[in-house]
Structures are given as C-alpha cells and as structure tokens.
Amino acid sequence: MNDLTDLYQEIILDHNRKPRNFGELPGANRTAKGDNPLCGDRLQVQLQVREGRITGIAFEGQGCAISTASASLMTEAVRGRTVEEAERLFHLVRNLFTRDDPPDPATLDDLGKIQALAGVREYPMRVKCATLAWHTLHTALAEPGSTVSTESGTS
C-alpha cells in the first residue's frame, strides 16, 4: 500500500479505537437517532446549538469501525461551525460517497481528515455505515428528536 492509504487506514483505526466526543452531552438542545438495520449500527447524535452555531456535539451508540470512525470524525469537523456550514459539509460528505464521478480535489481539501473515509466508495455496502452519523446530524439539525434509518431511502 502507499503511504497515503496507510495514513487513512490509521486515521480510521484511531477514531474507531478512541472515538472523539463519545458519550452523553449534558445540555444538548438537538438530538436525533440513526439506525442501520443491515449492519446493526445504532447511534444518537446530541448537539448544543447556540445562536446558529454548533457549540457542542457528542454521539452515543454502537457500530462497526467505519460507522464509529465516521461519527468521531464528524464531531471534530462540525464543532464550532455554523448550522449552515455543517449542512454544507453534510452535502459534501454525502456526495463523496454517493456520486459516480471522483471527488473534486478542492472538495477533498474542504473535508480535511474526513477524506480518510473516501475509500469506502469502493464498497457500496459500507457507504451506509460511513454516512449514518452524517444523516443523523442532518436530521438533528432539520428535525430534532427524529430517527433516521439507512433503509428509509435517506442514505
């Protein structure tokens, strides 16, 4: 493998072994649950949104390595961003996994460490694992208190 692939694998393994922002978020004012019944991934995303900015974020639940790493990377990426910036990032990530054409290099720069998950595109069954946390974030922002499922046509 090349050095970049090795680095990406290490980022995913690290975020799976030591997920960032894992646990309950006291004072959360927006939450949503996510479910991937085919893989067994289940999580809850909790947010503190103040004056249009995500001031706190955490997740709880259980999932495969890709799901956990994606959720961990997501929490680091959106903390401190405005709701609009987080929504833009959600759409960039969704496109990273679902578009047939390769990602635009400028988009990869916007994704930062999240681009470590780009290889998931080659494994269609794992795309739902990688996007579950992101769809749950989107739901927490748009429809707080709701549940999203990978089998409801949202992934």
Globally, the shape reads: globular
Question: How would you describe the oligomerization state of the chains in this entry?
Answer: single chain
Unreliable residue runs: none
Specify the biggest β-sheet.
Answer: 4 strands, mixed
Mean pLDDT: 91
The domain tally reads 1
Q: How many beta strands in the DSSP annotation? A: 4
Helix content: 40-55%
Q: SS-based structural class? A: alpha+beta
Beta content comes to 15-25%
- Major β-sheet strand ordering: 3-2-1-4
What tags apply to this protein structure?
alpha+beta, 46% helix, 4 strands, 5 helices, 155 residues, four-stranded mixed sheet, Sufe protein. Chain: A
What does this structure look like?
With 155 residues, the chain is an alpha+beta fold. The chain has a single domain (3-147), classed as Sufe protein. Chain: A. 46% of the residues lie in helices and 19% in strands. The chain is built from five helices and four strands, in the order H-E-E-E-H-H-H-H-E. The protein has helices spanning 3-17, 65-78, 83-98, 105-111, 124-142, and strands spanning 30-36, 41-50, 53-62, 147-149. It has a four-stranded mixed sheet, covered by helices on one side. Strand 2 and strand 3 form a beta hairpin. The protein is globular. The termini are far apart. The mean pLDDT is 91.
